[in-house]
Amino acid sequence: MRKPELKFAIIATDSVIFTILNEKLKILLVPVNIPPYFHDMQGLPGGLIAPDETAEDSVFRHIRNKTGLDIGYIEQLSTFSAINRDPRGRVVSVAYTACLSEEQATKSILKDGAVWVDVRSLPKLAYDHNEIVNKALENLRAKIWHTKFVQSLLPSKFTLHEIQSVFDVILGVGSDKRNFRTKVFNLDILKKVPGKKMKGAHRPAELYSFKASKVL
Amino acid sequence: MRKPELKFAIIATDSVIFTILNEKLKILLVPVNIPPYFHDMQGLPGGLIAPDETAEDSVFRHIRNKTGLDIGYIEQLSTFSAINRDPRGRVVSVAYTACLSEEQATKSILKDGAVWVDVRSLPKLAYDHNEIVNKALENLRAKIWHTKFVQSLLPSKFTLHEIQSVFDVILGVGSDKRNFRTKVFNLDILKKVPGKKMKGAHRPAELYSFKASKVL
DNA sequence: GCAAAAGTGTTGCCGGTACACCCATGC
DNA sequence: GCATGGGTGTACCGGCAACACTTTTGC
């Protein structure tokens, strides 16, 4: 099945890059065309780790190449080492999760056919990338209250409605406005900042930002 | 600093193997002697991943070689890829956590100078192994209530005192007997099994075992 | 009968959830 | 003045922590 020409395993990284566009959770996918194994499929952005870079460096480099962006916050997800996960040979992949704000995602200049795809309607992906995405989603949902993922998904200033919407979209449930606010205020992670945000003919919303390094 | 003869990174695994001996949390360490880099030091058991095995396979194999035991349950911890973590060349390591019962640990036939060392009095270890152990400890403490680690640390039948002792030793705090029992009973993960355990001139203790696959 | 570990319930607090109304703005 | 989203408080429930006495056994 796999070609024996590679004597040792090669190390790569794959990135699950989340953003929220139009209240939908999306990830970045790139075309995969590797005859005779994969025809017109999609997969996660990623690539080999260069000899003089760490896995994190590699992730930053590959994301920059696909989006033109410098991502600020990534988190290691897991390492995938199934023997036949890459039909071309033995490739072990260290998977990472990253998040972008809608603003960053829309201003990024996608290259090589990269596209944002709704996680609710993912196609069958190349390699074991569906498995990686599923694990990334589980991990995101489990840790959303205890990591900086939310901060990466939001602009520097945001309304309470916006931050609540991030939680609701990721967790896939609608939450109560008053309870949500009580909870985040008790966590003491937000500070009110000057200015208000108008959106249509309504009462303007207060703006908030994250207190420096409160959430781990 | 590092030798350039290796053109690509090599993949290895390292294992943090916990057990509890005499109410002390211990890990397995092996001697490391690699002049001119490491003289009479200790480090985690581990080794390269063979081309035809997964990372998990590699962990099982290396543990078997050091202890003569077949470990049942392991869990991936994290992957360490700092460029100079191994002074001999570029080695990326996938770290795993495993746990053994006291019975398994004492009956295991340690080879190559492997020893059990109290985590409270660890020496400076070779490579970045102190960092790996610290992360493994954090992870163990954070997930102790939600993983099979506790099951791996206990024999198949045990008393309530014994399981509480496992939690207390790992978390480093004494807990209330009645509250602890209320909590585990509410979790519905234990079943009473026939027989009692005597230990000195006292009232005998009931024996319990885990219900099949309740804890994830 | 005494030393030593096993076993057993109640109370207060806190975090989570359910739930409804007034406020500020543009038109 | 009305339509639209912004903002606020209370009541119930369940999990968690503090706390002391009786039971069973070997000697």
Could you name the key traits of this structure?
Arc Repressor Mutant, subunit A, Nucleoside Triphosphate Pyrophosphohydrolase, 216 residues, homodimer, 9 strands, 29% helix, DNA-binding
Annotation field: number of helices of chain A: 6
- Percent helix among the residues of chain A? 25-40%
SS class of chain A: alpha+beta
The low-pLDDT segments of chain A are 1-5
Task: Please identify, by name, the CATH architecture of the largest domain in chain A.
Answer: Alpha-Beta Complex
Identify the quaternary structure here.
Answer: homodimer
Let me know the number of strands of chain A. Answer: 9
**How is the main sheet of chain A built?**
7 strands, mixed
- Helix/strand order of chain A: EEEEHEEHEHHHHEE
Name the CATH superfamily classification of the largest domain in chain A: Nucleoside Triphosphate Pyrophosphohydrolase
CATH fold annotation of the largest domain in chain A: Nucleoside Triphosphate Pyrophosphohydrolase
Which percent range describes the beta-strand content of chain A?
Answer: 25-35%
Under the CATH scheme, which class of the largest domain in chain A? Alpha Beta
- Tell me, rounded to a whole number, the average pLDDT of chain A: 93
**Over all CA atoms, what is the radius of gyration of chain A?**
19 Å
Q: Which pair has the most extensive contact?
A: A-B, 22 and 22 residues
The structural domain count of chain A equals 2
Global outline of chain A: elongated
N→C terminal distance of chain A: 44 Å
